[in-house]
Amino acid sequence: MYRTRIFRALDPLNGMDQDSYRNQVITFEDTKPSAGAQKTQIYPIEKAIPRNSVQKTKTPCSDVGSTQPCPGSGIPMKRTCETIINQAITSTARNTHRHLVRYQFSSEFAVRSECLYIDPILHPDWNENFGVLFSHKVKGENMARVWDKLKLEREEEALEWLTGVDWTAEDPTHLSKQWSRLPRRQKETLWPPIALWLLLNSPRAALAFLLATDILPSPPFSMVAKCFLYLDAFHYEELTRDERSKQYYHEALHTCLDPEKWPVLKAYERGIRLFLKRGTPEDVNEALSTIINRRIHISFETATYLMDLFTKQRDIPRALSSLNLITDIRDYPQYLSDLRFQYRCCKLLTLDYVIEGNDERHFRILPEILKIGVPLNQPMLNIIYRNALKQNAPASVPYVLHEMGESGIPPDSYTYISLLDDAVSRRDLQHLDVIIREISSQETLRKNPFITSKMLHVFYSLDRVNPDEGWGDTDVFGRMLKIYSAAHDIQPLVDLGVVRADEFTLEEHEKSTNSPPSSHSLVIMISAFLRIQSVRQINNMFDRFLYLRDQGHESFGPLAESDYIFNVFLQEFAQRRSGRLKNCVRVLDTMLQPLPPTAILRSQSNRQIKQVKPTVQTWTILLTAFVRNRHPNAVDKIRVMMQEQGLKFNEVTWNVAVAGFSTMQMVDETANAVNTMMKEGWAPDDYTFNSMQWIHERDRLLSLVDNKASIGGRTQCGLADDEGSEGPVEIERHDESCESEGYD
């Protein structure tokens, strides 16, 4: 009977919950409208409830030294609040096997003394009722029927209070004032049914109610946190539909779940993690400080959640502090071998760096992980090994290798990729050759697609790694072909004409055990082959590629859906003098043409191949070709064509333009390109400054360039002697005699 009356009496309130919220959202900073303002019927969530709108007047229970009886809670008047709270804390500590030092006990006492419930610290039926509410919401059951399943008391009083409050009052503190007038015992019995009913029927009103009742004595953290869990899980989008309402929700959550309200014992950690999830970086910092300073007992899940957050923020000191919280957990060593935890340690180790002290170089993060006893697995050892090679910490290398041997962990693909990177970075061709021979001697490594791709890339880059001692292009391609054929099927290269079938034995050619090549491996092999071919041969191979694409070739059809292969052909044409512009434009036109109906992938249910459109990188290479042929007008024309496609110049494209104008001594155009580049948000780099050095009238150039304060010093400091940064597109001065001979 009571429940029916509640639904009928508050039915208009439900309507306002859905309709009136759409047009007005008022944040914490809003105040009561001034005199003469038009009164609008609004719902309480839209009004500001200042954080100190109703002063949290301390009751006798709030004073540690109080000897007055505690009203409510069904406790005999002769027992004092202090005695009750002390006994409850002692009992909880004993039951949870916790030992509290004095300041922890004081912190727990302070939290409990401000709580609406004393012993127990929450309403006895709350957890069961909330569990029913949440589970039935997940199942999507009729919420009116859920109400009948709850264990509730004083429903009629809850009805009277809900219907007696003016939910449309202009005063943002009205709700708090009405609540503060109730006797403590009445608050204890009314808070649960009111909160549950509002969660079921009016989420925005529930948020307002949680804020309004955040006055002393306040509901316990666990009860309030569960309400926010419900709102966050089922109504977050509704409650944060615009920026102002989102700010209101987050400030409400911060106010009601403030770390100062967290108990030392049996803190409701889902509520803590919700605070961390929705909090700002400053909130997360505050939470960690509170946990550490008050030594709040938290679980492994919460400690690692904190560790994750600080790792994402790249805050190493706080991530390590969160890691050390694990050691306060009972039987914590059992968690250290958990794969999820070790994965988190891997992510943290990727941030590791070397510090120097006592004439030694050692890592910042690794010793902290080892100190708490985390067992090192292969991914962690690989990251440590890579860090040691990358950051020049050789003392750690023997340790890693020793640990691998002691643990029976052989080097894997990641280890060898790290070794390859190290050899390349040190330009150590002898060591590189040793590593490659070792990889080639092990079939599992030799056929590993990641290692194969890495080795192909290393060989392809040898000219840049060590141009004086590197092998010639033909030698490089031959070595790459051996690596490729050991891991991948050679048939795609035969189909394209990169190699002839008679170059391989019948047994090698008919082998079907090797996997199809990855797109990266296939394209890099094509690129290595093209750079030792003439323009005519490159054109023939481009025609062959287009034919295979149009026939839906299983290896070359998918390549047409990426700009990678087209950029390779475009780059090779751009580097040749003969037919440069004609061939480059042909590649671009091909990318803009629709594919024939035959261009389907039969192994993918006859899926139509989607021809990729020119990308910024494609246009940049095309611009390089025009600049090399001394066509400065192409800069503006290509820029307009890119804009029509929805693309803009990036940093590399602008550097190509600046380099082109500079080599042709076009001072005004060079200055205009630099100025436009900066206006579009691209800061000039060393490559830009080096290009500007080619201008003979340097003083005139500087007078035309904006932001001379930041550029003038750079252009007068001998940057012409620097190497500059290496971009993905090679730009040279226009000197016909310097261009490659013998290609044509």
TrEMBL record:
UniProt keywords, alphabetically: Repeat
Keyword Repeat: yes
Coiled coil: none
UniProt PPR repeat ranges: 650-684
Keyword hit for Lipid biosynthesis: no
Pfam families registered for this protein in UniProt: PPR_3
Residues covered by region (Disordered): 717-744
Quaternary structure annotation from Swiss-Prot or TrEMBL: Binds to mitochondrial small subunit 15S rRNA.
Family, as annotated: Belongs to the CCM1 family.
Function text: Regulates mitochondrial small subunit maturation by controlling 15S rRNA 5'-end processing. Localizes to the 5' precursor of the 15S rRNA in a position that is subsequently occupied by mS47 in the mature yeast mtSSU. Uses structure and sequence-specific RNA recognition, binding to a single-stranded region of the precursor and specifically recognizing bases -6 to -1. The exchange of Ccm1 for mS47 is coupled to the irreversible removal of precursor rRNA that is accompanied by conformational changes of the mitoribosomal proteins uS5m and mS26.
Name listed for the protein in its UniProt record: Pentatricopeptide repeat protein
